[in-house]
Structures are given as structure tokens and as C-alpha cells.
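[User] Could I get a sequence and C-alpha cells?

[Assistant]
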Amino acid sequence: MIDMEKVAALIRETAEAVIVPRFRMLKQDEIREKKPGDFVTVADLDSERMLTERVLAALPGSAVLGEEAAAADASRFGLLAGEAPVWVIDPIDGTANFARGMPHFCVSIGYVEAGRKTVGVVSNPMADEFYAASAGGGATLNGKPMQVSPIVDIAAATVELGWSLRRPMAQYVAMIERVTAAGAGFLRRGSGTLGLAAVAAGRIDGYAELHINSWDVIAALLMVEEAGGWVSDFLAGDGLAKGNPVLACTPALRDALSRATGITA
């Protein structure tokens, strides 16, 4: 059994000790581009190291899939071949925002056991917002239950559409055209985790991306489910190791958004 209070304390401590003090204080040599449009900072590296050490100490025998370690050492995906529980860590989701001094980023920890999402914790330190969910235990924002929006008409919906260079820009533009043709408004803010958390909180009505990595979604997908939403089967195939398309929304919009985005269960 995962101690949610312990995980919550860990992620808060990491944000306060490593991430917040560096926000808007980064030097240029503390930021590098891993590949076009994909940034990493010293804060990402230090926070992932801190989170990894502490979660492994809390649960010996588990594995860690962290964004920066995975990028540096693809062999770490071998840890996912067995049945060991896996912590899925994004030390800073929204690094490009963080590096540019824009306060839309978060720290995310998800926990997967026997192929099931079981725990998700997300901290948005600049907004003083803390999201948490456990399988069968509901989802909360700052301790208050979350519920997806009651929107049933796609013409009244707002959907966040994420994008990355892992798919051609033409596919992203085509998805925008289909979603807006269906009547929905759209936005993009640069953090898949916070986009999905916003769906869970009922602030927006859906989130879609044609390819996204597991560390960007595992924790927040559980929140959407526990808040009464619908999510695509992200863990299908090699989703944990290699990523997948993702769609999350209020249940009434499932069919319309599946058609508009081309993303199904």
C-alpha cells in the first residue's frame, strides 16, 4: 500500500527545495536543448535525482522510469519488462515554460503496478495547487474532490491540443481543423500533465495529443478517471515505455472528440 501522505510530502519538498528557488534564476549554461523543442535544465536533473532516491528508499524493489534518466539511458526501459511496480516521474513537465520564466509547469509522480495506474500526485508550485488521486479513492485538488465538467455539447467545449516534434506538424494542424470544425475551442499551454489535470478539475473539457510520453500523463490520467472522466487506453502495447496517443475528456464528449482527434480507446 502506497502512503499517499508520504508521496505528497516528497513531491512538495522537491518543488520547494529544488525547483521554485531556480525559477527565473536559471543561467543560460543551466539550460540545454536535448533535441529541437525539448529542453532540460539543472532543476530537472536535480529534482529527478532527489525524487528517484527517495521513492526507491520508500518502496524497495520497485523501478523508476524518469524522463531525464530514460532520455540518457534507453536500457532503463528494460526495467519495465517484468512485473515490478514502476514509479513514473516527470521532474518538471513544462520545462520550456520553466526555462523561459513562465509559471505553467509542474512536478508529477505516477505509480503503475501490474499494468494498472494506482497513484498519481502532481504539484503546480507556482499556483500553490496540489493534485492527488488513487485508484478507487477519488481525485482531489488541494484536498477537495474533483469532478470533470458537465459539458455535453462539443460546440460548448474547450479542448487542449498538445503537440510535439514526434509527429508531423501537418497532423497536428489537421487535428486542430477537425476539432474546431466540430465546434470546440482549443488552446495549448505546454504541459500535458497540467492539461489533463485541468480536465479532471472541470476547468477544460478535454485534452488530446497524437503522441506523448508516459511520464507526462500517468499521474494525471488517473485523476481524470477518478474524477469521472473517460481516458483512452494509454498503457496499451508499449505505451509505458514508448508513449502513445492520448485523449481524456468528459464522458459525453468521448465519441465526438474521438472522431475529431482520430484517437480511440
In short: Residues 42-58 form the longest helix (17 residues).
